[in-house]
Write a structure and sequence with these properties.
The chain has 261 residues and is an alpha+beta fold. It contains 7 helices and 10 strands. Helix 1 packs antiparallel against helix 3. The two termini are 39 Å apart.
């Protein structure tokens, strides 16, 4: 359980790996010098040549220094190779520019607006939407900087998809979280909380970042749950009707493309 809360992609974890490697190297060097202390101090035999003993001691000392440098260089190379953290979500580079019909808008300057409709889904409003939100949140408060939306795809006023979208433009708290966590950690936290299994990454589309979907057990069978993340937004999406992960990912991507402007 403890391992689930360790962000193995974080900068602090990578730095810890580096410190671990260097600590082992320092211990090895200290032991090397302590264990060779008497060997390096070549004694002068009673009938021997003092100058020769001095040369031998110098030779042994240089050998020890050489081994020390070898250990240090090897540890430095291993430490450098082990430092490869994933950037914070806020550092995730934009995927470039996205066509917006009337020109080109930079992805980094986008804003998030939940759409009234997209690819067959219609945003629920009024009492039906309030009932859906109450049922999903079950007394919990919506996280700061987040907006809830329920969508109906068949016109029966019953939600077929729920979405909770967070944006840095809606809250400084979201911005702070984006500066602390990597996208991998955001996904790990979400899918662990959703008790999802078989989590799979999918093509995130023109806005970059990441998009993954998994399956979460429910009384009626497994339900698909998806999430997307980038430098400015995070969204959690749950589907009520049973659907494949691939179809859920396609719908989530369509929602993302309609939300980010």
């Amino acid at each position: 359980m403890i391992a689930a809360f360790v962000d193995t992609t974080s900068q602090s974890y990578a730095l810890g790996q580096v410190v671990g490697v260097l600590t082992v190297a320092v211990v090895a060097i200290v032991l090397l010098w302590r264990l060779t202390r008497s060997w390096r101090a070549a004694s002068t035999p009673s009938d021997g040549d003092p100058a020769g003993a001095t040369r031998e001691a110098r030779k042994r000392r240089l050998m020890t220094i050489g081994l020390t440098l070898l250990i240090a260089v090897g540890a430095g190379a291993k430490a450098a190779a082990s430092y490869h953290p994933e950037p914070r979500a806020s550092e995730t580079p934009a995927a470039g520019s996205v066509s917006q019909g009337r020109g080109v808008q930079e992805a980094a300057a986008r804003s998030a607006v939940l759409p009234d409709s997209f690819t067959g889904f219609r945003l629920m409003t009024g009492e039906a939407a309030q009932r859906a939100e109450t049922a999903v949140l079950a007394g919990r408060s919506l996280p700061e900087g987040s907006k809830f939306a329920s969508y109906d795809s068949d016109g029966d006023e019953s939600p077929d998809m729920y979405a909770v979208v967070s944006s840095t433009e809606w809250s400084t708290k979201v911005r702070e979280e984006k500066s602390r966590k990597s996208i991998a950690q955001e996904f790990r936290d979400f899918f662990a909380g959703a008790k999802a299994h078989d989590v799979t990454a999918f093509e995130p589309g023109p806005y970059g970042g990441g998009l993954s979907c998994g399956l979460s057990a429910s009384p009626g069978g497994d339900q698909a749950v998806c999430a997307w993340s980038d430098a400015t937004t995070f969204a959690a999406v749950r589907f009520r009707p049973q659907t494949t992960q691939a179809d859920a990912a396609g719908t989530t991507l369509a929602l993302r493309n309609a939300t980010l402007r």
